[in-house]
């Protein structure tokens, strides 16, 4: 997700302006945001930023997640002492209670964004805690954490000053043309003259725009390998064998 998503700098409502400029369609803000947000989520190439928050584990072991939390990376706490456990294991993770090994920071030019993110997570002090995530909260596995503070590391969607997600130019195009397709489909049901031709013209272009918005800006070796697996026969796996594209 966030490791391959394109840079964002355009406010979400830019797509409403493009919808009006290109297709002469004006929607009220609530209708636009509802429809456009659904299309944006279907694109799925979402950029996020890494955040931390100090949280308190309740007596029921529940931690309420921040409203801007897209997904949780880790939950750590330094509220344990070596005498409280023998294995250093809390829930799903196991670490030596004697401390972490010295961190070796990789060269950013030689590693992926995801690898650098993992290195950043590794530097968060404290023991990692096991937990189970639910809608809007998580529950810690260890009863020893009841009533204790912890550090939550999570990813948050990049948003503008209006609280709506920031977009890149390809997403703006995809949202605008797909909203135009929705309007054409509604016109077709209303038996508006010419709606069928508009839909026939826009639908293929809308699909292309969605694919362009979904495509990763940077493709890793693994991603390239997966792409070639889909586009070529398994014969390419054989040494010195010619590619046979479908």
What topology does this entry show?
Blueprint: H1 14-23, H2 29-43, E1 48-56, E2 62-64, E3 69-77, E4 89-90, E5 93-94, H3 113-122, E6 127-128, E7 131-134, E8 137-140, E9 149-157, H4 169-189, H5 195-214, H6 221-231
Antiparallel strand pairs: 1-9, 2-8, 3-6, 3-9, 4-5, 7-8
Helix pairs in contact: 1-4, 2-4, 4-5
Radius of gyration, in Å, reads 24 Å
Number of domains: 2
**Roughly how much helix do the residues carry, as a percent range?**
25-40%
Treating each run of at least 4 consecutive H or I residues as one helix, how many helices? 6
Mean pLDDT metric: 78
**N- and C-termini, Cα separation:** 28 Å
The gross shape turns out to be elongated
Task: Please identify the structural class as seen in this structure.
Answer: alpha+beta
Order of strands, main sheet, comes to 1-9-3-6
Secondary structure: number of strands: 9
The H-and-E topology, N to C, reads as: HHEEEEEHEEEEHHH
Note down, in words, how this protein is organized.
35% of the residues lie in helices and 18% in strands. The chain is an alpha+beta fold. It has 6 helices and 9 strands; from the N terminus they run H-H-E-E-E-E-E-H-E-E-E-E-H-H-H. The chain is elongated. The strands form 3 sheets. A 4-stranded antiparallel beta sheet has the order 1-9-3-6, with no helix packed on it. The protein folds into 2 domains: 14-46 and 161-215, no CATH class; 48-157, no CATH class. Helix 2 crosses helix 4 and helix 4 (169-189) packs antiparallel against helix 5. It has helices spanning 14-23, 29-43, 113-122, 169-189, 195-214, 221-231, and strands spanning 48-56, 62-64, 69-77, 89-90, 93-94, 127-128, 131-134, 137-140, 149-157.
